[in-house]
Amino acid sequence: MTPLTTRATAQRFDIDGYEVHPVAAPSRGSSELAVWSIRATPGAASVTHQHDREVVFVVSTGRMVAVIGDERFEAGPGDAFIVPPKTDFTLSNASADDPASLTVATTVGMHAFVDGEAFPPPWTL
C-alpha cells in the first residue's frame, strides 16, 4: 500500500450541496484518522446532526457558518470549527454566490446521527 492518496482516485459523495472526497480512511490506507475534503456549493447547508467523536473542520477557502449547540460561528480561511461529540451541529456556506472548501478530520469509526439514526459516513470508511 502506498502512503500517498490522490483526489483523482477518491470516490466523490454528494450530499446537501456538498461534494465530499475522502483523503484518508481505512479504505485508503489510514488506520487511525479519517480525513476528507469538502467543496460547499453556494448556499449549501447540512441538516442538523451529531457525531459520536470530536470532529475538526478547517476552512480553506470562502466563509462557512456552523451552529454548534446553541451558538453560531462564522469562519474563514485558516479558521477551524471544533465540534464536540454528541452536540447538535449544522454547517452552511455563508455565501449564496461563492463556493467554499474545507478539510475535515476525526478518528476512524466515527458515526453521525440524524434524527436519532446512527450511520458511519461512507467517506470515513
Integer count of domains: 1
Topology order in helix (H) and strand (E) letters: EEEEEEEEEEEE
Query: Helix/strand-derived class?
Result: mainly beta
- Terminal CA distance reads 16 Å
E-strand count: 12
User: What is the overall pLDDT average?
Assistant: 96
The third-level CATH topology is Jelly Rolls
Biggest β-sheet description: 6 strands, antiparallel
In the CATH hierarchy, what is the architecture at level 2? Answer: Sandwich
Give the CATH H-level superfamily.
Jelly Rolls
Using the coordinates above, name the CATH class.
Mainly Beta
Instruction: For the largest sheet, list the strands in their spatial order.
Output: 1-2-3-10-5-8
| Number of helices, counting only DSSP H or I runs of 4 residues or more | 0
Percentage of residues assigned to helices: under 10%
Strand content: over 45%
Give the CA-based shape. Answer: globular
Verbal overview:
It is a single chain. The chain has 125 residues and is an all-beta fold. The chain has one domain (9-109): Jelly Rolls (Sandwich). 0% of the residues lie in helices and 48% in strands. The chain has strands spanning 13-15, 18-24, 33-40, 50-51, 55-61, 64-68, 71-75, 80-83, 89-93, 100-107, 112-114, 117-119. The protein has a six-stranded antiparallel beta sheet, with no helix packed on it. A three-stranded antiparallel beta sheet has the order 4-11-12, with no helix packed on it. It has a three-stranded antiparallel beta sheet with strand order 7-6-9, with no helix packed on it. A hairpin with an 8-residue loop joins strand 2 and strand 3 (33-40). The model has no long low-confidence stretch (mean pLDDT 96).
